Each structure stands twice: as structure tokens, then as C-alpha cells.
Amino acid sequence: MAFITKTFYSQEDLARHLQTHRPSFYFSSKTSTVVPYDKLDSLLPWKKDEDYYLCDLSKLPPHMELTSSGNLILRGAVSWEEAKKFLKSQGRNLKTSPTEQLALITAGVATSCTGERCFAFGTMRSQVVRLKYLNFKGEEKELHRNTPLNTSSAFFKKYSEDYAKYASFKNAPYPRFEKEIDLMIGTEGQLGLVTEVEIETVEDLAVNYVFMLLPRWEEDMGPHLEIYEAVQPHRNSIISCELLDANCMNYLKPDEKLGNNQDVIFLEIKSDAFEEIYGNVLCGLKLTPADEVYEIAESKFHHVRAGVPRAIFERNSQMGVVKVGTDVQVSQERYPDLLNFYRDAAKLGVNYCLFGHFGDAHLHFNYMPTKDESAKCLDKLLELYNKVLEWKGSPFAEHGIGLLKQKYIKRFHGENQLGLFHDLKKEHDPHNQFFPQGFMSAEQ
Ligand SMILES: Cc1cc2nc3c(=O)[nH]c(=O)nc-3n(C[C@H](O)[C@H](O)[C@H](O)COP(=O)(O)OP(=O)(O)OC[C@H]3O[C@@H](n4cnc5c(N)ncnc54)[C@H](O)[C@@H]3O)c2cc1C
């Protein structure tokens, strides 16, 4: 068996490869945090005496157009950054803004990605009007968001009932499977390959970015929770609400650091609502004085916000360790429990930092272990996932399962989930050619 890397420059070539039914892993920009691209050969075991294909989709010809109703139609290799630039030239903007703007949008559909602007505009899934994909025969098919998913699986009803408790989360421990577009959303390329997407956009309104300096959350999380509560009723005016804690600043260059051993909460606010939010919301905070609120340029915000997870990725690569980080979202009631768990996790004696989509109760706690420290950090995460199950929270709210999270997700999947995965795989991937090691192929 050999690993063979193939790069596709046209959809016709890709369709021809699909017709061979060879087991393959398809990737786009390789920014996934749950797929360790430098260790794929050891993590993609393929026992049969057959070649395994690593298929690069990042060179597929890109295409973008705006419909008269303001939707963006994109085909092929288009990144969030490119789409944003195109839309801004037309007076429009994206409703979804993952922190990693170099990722491709078609892959974002496959991972059901979300991001910062989810606070105001909801999930990417809710913005997909229709999409096209290549099936196992290499045929292009179209799916619409208004058409219910049609499957004869006996597990479908119970799966949907189980899903109900997770309906308010960005992503649940298993895909939504309600409309036909859901076959391609969050299924990580295990049922087909996304080739074209039509997504909603918004008018490119002027925005202001501010940040607030707070005490370290480990010592006093009162100011953080007050801000969390205060922003909730203003999702029409506040577009995003993000956190970088004081520990994150250690991973930035000296001229990029904000605060003085303080946590930072950022808000993206529509300019026409800025006075109202500043006067009525920010000046009304009892635990954060108004003189700890500062304006920041949009470009600097994005640079600093994306700089932290990128620096962590580089640091882990240099140390030769796999990322030990979380992607947990919980309900409003459980947010203090989650923060308290992280406070306890911080006492392990391993370097760490906390950042993420604060306003959505969705944070990434990252250990920065040495090789020797990795095992105890992973044990701590196991403890967390037991709690998340008990709290009925979402363990992996936007980065997906990939290869790295499979051992943690198992406890969230019962007979109904594994049964539906099995039936959908059989129907849409009868030759088991799409990412055969993905979470949908787990044993029943
Ligand atoms: C610094 C940083 C910040 C991030 N911030 C966010 C964030 O805010 N929100 C968020 O949701 N994610 C975030 N991510 C995670 C990552 O960017 C997303 O998971 C993204 O969707 C992956 O896109 P990609 O093009 O890199 O896909 P890849 O890593 O190449 O692939 C990811 C998965 O999608 C599948 N896939 C790829 N292309 C297709 C296709 N055309 N059809 C079907 N399946 C396909 C692959 O098989 C794989 O399973 C971040 C990552 C980093 C490094």
C-alpha cells in the first residue's frame, strides 16, 4: 500500500478519480485543527493491500458571482479572505467569519464552520441557500435548504429526537440531518465533495471595533460574566464578541500585545448603533470602568485575534506535540461551570491560554505541553468531555471531529447515531471511498 498525493486542477479530473472508487482523503487549505496533516500516514491506516489517495482540492478553478438578491455563488477553491474582498467591492460582506480566513468556503461547509460573526448572524449552515456536490459516481448533484432530508433509515426518527437537545448549539456532537443540504454540512467529506455553494451575504455596513481590559479570569471572572450577560440582548447591533486572555499575549510580538497582564474582550459593533451600545451597555457595566474601553482598527483586531491560534499551532509543531485544545460550547446556565472547570484545568502546572467566541459561550482552552506533559493534559480533557456530556453541551462546536477528536466523540454517539451514519454511508458512499476513517465509519 502506498500514499499517493493527487492535485486536481479541474472538476472533470476529480470526477474521473471518483469513478475509480479508490479510498481517498480530500483536503482543501489544510487549516483543520483536528486533522494533523504532518502525521496523516500514521493516522490513516488502510489495512487492505491497496493504495490510499490524498487529494488536494485547493487548485480547483475558483469562481464567484453575486445574485440580484445579494447571495454569493462560489465554485471551486475560494477562501473566506477572497470572498470578503470580492463582496466588499460590491458593497456586501460575509455573514460568517472564521478566524482563519485562508480556509476554503467549500471545506467550511464540509466542517460546518462558524466563527466570530456567528454572534449576530447565526451559523453558516443557516446561510447556505443551496449547494452542489460530486457523488461517488462523479456526478454533480444539487441540494436545497428548503427540501427535507429523505432517507429510509430506520434510525432517522430517533436520531432527530436525540438531536433536539442540541438544537441551539452551533454544532452538536453529531450532524443535524434535517434538510437535504445537511448531507454535506458537517459531514467532513464523508458523503461527497462540495463543489458549489450559494450563501447569503449582508450589506457592508460600517463597523467599529473596541476592546475592554479585564482582570485575569482565573482570579476574577465576574467582569467577564457581566459583559457576557450585557451583550446578549444586542445581537442586532453587536456583530461579534471575542476573548483573548492574558496568557494569549505571551504568543504575540511585543508591539501586538494588549493590556498589562489583563484579559481582553473585543466587540465588533455596527457604527450606527455605536453610541447606543457605548452609552447604554458599556458605560453601564459595574465591574469594567468605561476608561478601560478602547477603540482598535479592524485590521489590527483580525491580526491579533488570528495571531494567537496560529502561534499556538507553530509552537506545538516546534515542540513536536499534537494540539491539546478544546472547542466546547455550553448553554448560558453552564457557562460559569465551564469557566470553573478551565480554572481547575489551569492548575495542572502546564502552560495554557484561553480564547474564543466568548459571547456564544464557546471557548478554546489550549494547553501548551512539552512531550512529557501531553498525557496528563489529554487525561484532563477526558474529564472535561464527561462533564460536557453531563451538561448537555457541545464538545466540538466548530472545528469538527477529523482524526484527532474521534476517541473523545465516541461517548456522545449511541445506537441511533451510529445506525444513521451507517445507513447514510451505505447509501451515499457504497464503495467506502470518501474518508473511510472518518467518524461516520465507527463500528456499531
Ligand atoms: C488559526 C485558526 C483559526 C480557526 N478559526 C476557526 C473558526 O473561527 N471557526 C471555524 O469553524 N473553524 C476555524 N478553524 C478551523 C478550520 O479553519 C476550519 O475547520 C476550516 O473549515 C477548514 O478549511 P480548510 O480549507 O483548511 O479544510 P481542510 O483542513 O483542508 O479540510 C477540512 C475537512 O474538510 C474536508 N473537505 C475539504 N474540502 C472539502 C470539499 N470540497 N468537500 C467535502 N469535504 C471537504 C476534508 O476532508 C477535511 O475533513 C481555525 C483554524 C485555524 C488554524
- The count of DSSP E runs of length 2 or more, i.e. the number of strands, is 18
Stretches with pLDDT under 50, minimum 5 residues: none
Average pLDDT works out at 96
CATH fold topology of the largest domain: Vanillyl-alcohol Oxidase, Chain A, domain 3
- Sheet/helix structural class: alpha+beta
* Large-scale geometry: globular
Number of discrete domains: 3
Could you give the distance between the termini?
Answer: 27 Å
The percent range for strand residues is 15-25%
CATH architecture of the largest domain: 3-Layer(aba) Sandwich
What's the story with the biggest beta sheet?
8 strands, antiparallel
Q: Hetero groups bound?
A: flavin-adenine dinucleotide
The amount of helix comes to 25-40%
Rg (C-alpha, Å):
22 Å
Please write the CATH class name of the largest domain: Alpha Beta
Report on the structure:
The protein contains 13 helices and 18 strands. With 444 residues, the chain is of the alpha+beta class. The protein folds into three domains: 54 residues, no CATH class; 149 residues, Uridine Diphospho-n-acetylenolpyruvylglucosamine Reductase, domain 3, CATH 3.30.465.10; 185 residues, 3-Layer(aba) Sandwich (Vanillyl-alcohol Oxidase, Chain A, domain 3), CATH 3.40.462. Strand 2, helix 2 and strand 3 form a beta-alpha-beta unit. The longest helix has 22 residues. The protein starts with a strand and ends in a 16-residue tail after the last helix. The model has no long low-confidence stretch (mean pLDDT 96). Bound molecules: flavin-adenine dinucleotide.
